[in-house]
Recover the amino acids of this structure.
């Protein structure tokens, strides 16, 4: 047998623990300050480091925004822009009142929104431009905000919402519901929608009336419960009837309501009847959060006093917005915001800002 001393040069027969360890000194009972209760939680140990300097209460920092004069914004149009550019950008008359108003409206439209805000678009009468208002309102939101906006066609009678933007897919809400279990990300949903230049997406309804009639409240609830995971604003273009099967689901989920009326007597009467029906069926709180849109579908209002009409609805709804007649919207084809008249763009901006004011202030 080989001697371990020949095998390992670092081998030693001496034990490193040959000396016995001294016994630990007896522990003294802890000393507590007078009045201290040992049953209470232990005191925080004192830090071995000196305390860090703390700001004095008497010191008051001056925010830079209070002492630094903000630069004057440059004009975007009109004689102000001509003067600014003609002077080699040396003379800056600043923004016009209209430009300041537009910037303020855009700021309201861009209010923070956490979660999903659902808007129901209603009208008892056809031909008042409900689908057009749905598209233009959604497109205004989508073009200005960074989040996702979608309009859902819940019309059981072959809705025309999908005709307002370029068609990218023939898929409908029926196909989305059929494949709901396979959808796990936004790109999956995107395969069932079409998107316009404004970034507004549209989920079309079934074009076969025999099939679309079966679209039920449960179907709508399933669709919205899926969409609210991927979109911040969902607009629902409802049918002209209030009694079809999906309407209860639309109203129960809606955070806000838009009632669309034309500038005619019969259009206003139908809009007023819509509000009456909602209040009679327990949706009074929703009516208080609603916006009535008076949409001018004809170049001239005729003998109807639109100011009195607006005053009538202002007493019943949260606010009233008026959309002027626009030749591009009269075409009834695909809608491009850039082709709208300036007054129409401003009116839609005011409508979007009024709706954004209803966003929940605390998410």
């Amino acid at each position: 047998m080989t001697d371990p001393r020949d095998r390992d040069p670092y081998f030693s027969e001496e034990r490193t623990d040959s000396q016995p360890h001294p016994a630990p000194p007896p522990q003294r009972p802890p000393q507590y300050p007078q009045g201290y209760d040992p049953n209470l939680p232990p005191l925080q140990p004192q830090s071995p480091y000196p305390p860090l300097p703390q700001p004095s209460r008497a010191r008051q920092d001056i925010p830079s925004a209070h002492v630094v004069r903000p630069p004057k914004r440059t004009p975007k149009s009109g004689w102000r822009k001509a003067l600014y550019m003609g002077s080699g950008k040396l003379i800056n008359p600043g923004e016009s009142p209209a430009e300041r108003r537009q910037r303020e409206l855009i700021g309201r439209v861009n209010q923070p929104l956490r979660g999903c805000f659902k808007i129901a678009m209603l009208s008892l009468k056809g031909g008042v431009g409900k689908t057009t208002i749905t598209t233009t309102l959604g497109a205004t939101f989508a073009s200005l905000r960074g989040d996702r906006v979608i309009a859902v066609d819940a019309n059981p009678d072959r809705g025309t919402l999908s005709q307002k933007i370029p068609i990218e897919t023939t898929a409908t809400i029926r196909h989305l519901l059929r494949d709901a279990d396979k959808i796990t990300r936004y790109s999956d949903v995107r395969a069932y929608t079409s998107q316009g230049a404004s970034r507004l997406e549209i989920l079309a309804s079934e074009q076969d009336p025999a099939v679309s009639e079966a679209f039920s409240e449960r179907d709508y609830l399933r669709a919205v419960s899926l969409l609210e995971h991927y979109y911040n604003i969902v607009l629902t273009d409802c049918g002209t009837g209030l009694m079809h099967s999906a309407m209860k689901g639309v109203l129960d989920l809606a955070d806000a309501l838009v009632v669309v009326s034309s500038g005619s007597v019969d259009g206003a009467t139908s809009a007023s009847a819509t509000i009456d029906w909602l209040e009679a069926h327990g949706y009074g709180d929703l009516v208080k959060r609603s916006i009535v849109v008076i949409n001018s579908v004809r170049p001239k209002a005729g003998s109807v006093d639109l100011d009195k009409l607006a005053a009538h609805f202002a007493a019943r709804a949260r606010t009233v917005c008026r959309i002027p007649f626009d030749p591009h919207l009269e075409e009834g084809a695909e809608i491009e915001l850039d082709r709208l008249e300036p007054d129409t763009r401003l009116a839609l901006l005011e409508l979007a800002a009024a709706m954004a004011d209803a966003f929940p202030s605390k998410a």
Notes: The chain has a mean pLDDT of 83.
